[in-house]
Design goal:
Blueprint: H1 2-8, H2 12-24, H3 30-44, H4 48-58
């Protein structure tokens, strides 16, 4: 329960990407995982949530994730 709360408190797109890469570790080579994790990160840096994290930190408030 505590773990689930900690996970769901994070940006949903980042959680989904992390989960996907973690599950891929069972079926893909290290080389594929490096490539896929790089693509996953690259897809996140253009999101609103990526900008919200540092903004919330600077403003000393909890982030409001939109999943966008």
């Amino acid at each position: 329960e505590k773990l689930a709360a900690r996970i769901t408190a994070n940006a949903p797109l980042a959680v989904f990407a992390s989960r996907t890469v973690a599950l891929d570790a069972f079926t893909k080579s290290d080389e594929e995982l490096w490539k896929d994790s790089g693509k996953a990160f690259a897809s996140l840096v253009t999101t609103e949530d990526y900008k919200e994290g540092p903004r919330a930190f600077i403003e000393k408030r909890p982030p409001v994730w939109k999943g966008k």
